[in-house]
């Protein structure tokens, strides 16, 4: 699948993958901060943003998409970062093609089953998808009208604003969704799945630095998973981003940028 992407900067290559309900423009501020030292690629994952839709939505397919993206853009060796669903995709890619990576950064997600220790996280995404699927936005007149519609359905202003970024106008001028709602609803269980099959032994991956970031107020990366993560990536380090929840790149972009920059710069020297 050929993914839409944004590109900026110059220097060593860095690919950043957004999470569920996200898109490439969620990371443009951080990409801009890094673009004086790195060439930053921000792809839209399948069923999101401006990339193609498919009824298939699992980590094997998304990792394959990134492999095709890398080869299509002649990326011989690069840094790979990902948030949430994008973080799991990045882990899957690292397990399959470690020889292509200079470093791996995973933002606020465990590679293992999401919701095992924090079931509310899975239910939150499920509820958001139900709200999106059950809301007719085609008759809305303006963005402010959309804000009014969703203000009673999604209470958090931050989450509501994040979701509303997925709305665009179609060729007739009516509002429609960028994301593939039906495919995401059908595959939400696969999105929550572990990227490490329980019945398969995984050879530990080494040879490049690995950094896991977790939001101080998030439960998506429980400390109980640290040991299992180290069995996959023995060199993995863990850093907590202060004053941040799951969308840590939005809650504390300066600290996230600093953490990413520090790891990339140290490896590039």
What is the secondary structure topology, with strand pairs?
Elements: E1 5-9, E2 13-17, H1 28-34, E3 39-43, H2 59-72, E4 78-83, H3 85-96, E5 101-107, H4 119-133, H5 143-151, H6 157-164, E6 167-169, E7 175-177, H7 181-186, H8 188-192, E8 210-215, H9 226-232, E9 236-241, H10 248-251, H11 253-268
Helix pairs in contact: 1-11, 2-3, 5-6
Give an overview in words.
It contains 11 helices and 9 strands. It is globular. The chain is α/β, with parallel strands linked by helices and about 270 residues long. The mean pLDDT is about 90. Helices cover about 40% and strands about 15% of the residues. The longest helix has 16 residues. Helix 1 links the parallel strand 2 and strand 3. The two termini are about 35 Å apart. Helix 1 packs parallel to helix 11, helix 2 crosses helix 3 and helix 5 packs across helix 6. The protein folds into 2 domains: about 190 residues, 3-Layer(aba) Sandwich (Rossmann fold); about 70 residues. A 7-stranded mixed sheet has the order 1-3-2-4-5-8-9, sandwiched between helices. A two-stranded antiparallel ribbon has the order 6-7.
What distinguishing features does this structure have?
single chain; 269 residues; alpha/beta; Rossmann fold; 2 domains; 7-stranded mixed sheet; two-stranded antiparallel ribbon; 11 helices; 9 strands; 38% helix; globular
